[in-house]
Design a protein that fits this description.
two-stranded antiparallel sheet; elongated; 73% helix; 2 strands
Length: 290
């Protein structure tokens, strides 16, 4: 073997050492043997193409050089015993076995590991066909996802609509006798707020709030309309208080356009709640128009 070839192999082994270090630092789950074998194939192909080496029988030396560099690095620079690290030893044994098989049964049996132009022609056409198939599949996949998304959204909207109408019917049947106001346009808003609050704080939890209040006497939100109070308020009284508040807000905004949104916004003073209550209100209005 020529000195020039040995020098090139030594340089190649230093590069391999740095590559394996990088993989180790990144903690990527990839086998040393696979990386080494790929690297040996590339170096073998380059050496043959540049006519650096007449044959690649000795390409395996790169791995031996890399091992020697690693032992020196661990023993002298890091001041550790290389051979005490069982995981590293196992890793190198497996890597040597893979590299030896690759070198013996493939690299040494072919003139070059790189593909020639005739072989590349077939690969290129396979890649083109594969790319076109992937484009078609991707479009179909995107279309299927969009259709599924639309179906899910439609189903969720239908379920939401059904829930709102059922709750509206139940609450109207239960509380219509106490919902009295001279501003008839407030009635759907009252029910929309009631449905929203009842969903977020069902009757069972409101009963728990009552027992907790009995124990600690602290200020809390009470009733179906979830009114802030120092004293306990039942569902009926919470509705009466909410109606008075809404009537006052309605009077203050009597000259405003798009009052429904402004009334709900003034009542809650929270933008995210406003849009949720408005969506419930729209469902109630649509149902009443049928």
């Amino acid at each position: 073997m020529e000195i020039k070839t040995l020098i090139i192999y030594l340089i190649a082994s230093i590069i391999l050492f740095l590559i394996l270090n990088h993989v180790e630092e990144k903690k990527e789950i990839i086998h040393y043997g696979i990386i080494t074998c790929i690297y040996l194939l590339i170096v073998s192909g380059i050496c043959t193409a540049l006519k650096i080496s007449k044959n690649n029988d000795s390409i395996f030396i790169i791995l031996l050089f890399e091992l020697l560099i690693r032992i020196i690095n661990v023993s002298m620079i890091k001041e550790k015993n290389f051979f005490k690290n069982k995981e590293t030893i196992k890793k190198y044994i497996l890597t040597f076995m893979m590299a030896f098989c690759l070198n013996t049964f493939f690299i040494c049996k072919v003139k070059t590991v790189f593909l020639n132009l005739e072989q590349m022609k077939m690969i290129i056409w396979l890649l083109i066909i594969s790319y076109l198939i992937n484009i078609v599949k991707h479009k179909e996949k995107v279309s299927l996802k969009e259709n599924n998304k639309k179906r899910i959204i439609k189903k969720e909207n239908n379920e939401k609509q059904e829930y709102i109408i059922i709750q509206y019917a139940k609450l109207k049947n239960k509380y219509s006798n106490i919902i009295k106001t001279r501003y008839k346009e407030l009635i759907p808003i009252i029910y929309a707020i009631m449905i929203y609050e009842n969903k977020n704080r069902p009757e069972l939890f409101r009963k728990l709030d009552y027992y907790i209040y009995k124990m600690n006497g602290k200020k809390n939100k009470f009733g179906i309309m979830q009114i802030d109070s120092k004293y306990y308020i039942d569902d009926e009284n919470s509705i009466s208080i909410a109606i008075r508040r809404l009537e006052k807000i309605n009077y203050q905004l009597s000259k405003q356009n798009n009052k429904e949104k402004l009334i709900i916004k003034e009542y809650y003073k929270k933008e995210n709640i406003v849009y949720e209550v408005l969506s419930i209100l729209n469902e109630i209005k649509q149902f009443n128009q049928k």
